[in-house]
Design goal:
Blueprint (H helix, E strand, L loop, with lengths): L3 E4 L2 E4 L4 E7 L8 E7 L6 E6 L6 E3 L7 E6 L4 E6 L8 E8 L15 E2 L3 E6 L1
């Protein structure tokens, strides 16, 4: 069983930055593609960003592209999401997820992911 633990969320003001972290218990962390998703109250869980096992390819949602950067450190079994110029509409619970089998097309699909963390709350005030 793979455990994922997110951290780094909090209450910030519009325009601020946050870096979320997701630590994995998986011994084979480096084989997983990793993704970040978010879910606001009353809304579906939506894709934010993803990164392949090597870190060689990344993908971003249109709403966050240019403001977010996903990265990973396989030596530390950790994936990061740097978020800049935060907006109130970025308020949500942010989840990291791991996918063992994937393609470039499926990385944006939450159903492609096998393991999920419990989430970390990000609240952006205006």
């Amino acid at each position: 069983q793979v455990q994922l633990v997110e951290s780094g969320g909090g209450l910030v003001q519009a325009g601020d930055s946050l870096r979320l972290s997701c630590a994995s218990s998986a011994r084979t962390f480096s084989v997983f593609a990793m993704g970040w998703f978010r879910q606001a109250p009353g809304k579906e869980r939506e894709f934010v960003a993803a990164i392949t096992w090597s870190g060689g390819s990344t993908a971003y949602a249109g709403s966050t592209k240019g403001r977010c950067t996903i990265s990973r450190d396989n030596a530390k079994n950790t994936v990061y999401l740097q978020m800049n110029s935060l907006k109130p509409e970025d308020t949500a619970v942010y989840y990291c997820a791991a996918a063992a089998s994937y393609s470039a097309r499926t990385l944006v699909d939450r159903y492609a992911y096998d393991y999920w963390g419990q989430g970390t709350q990000v609240t952006v005030s205006s």
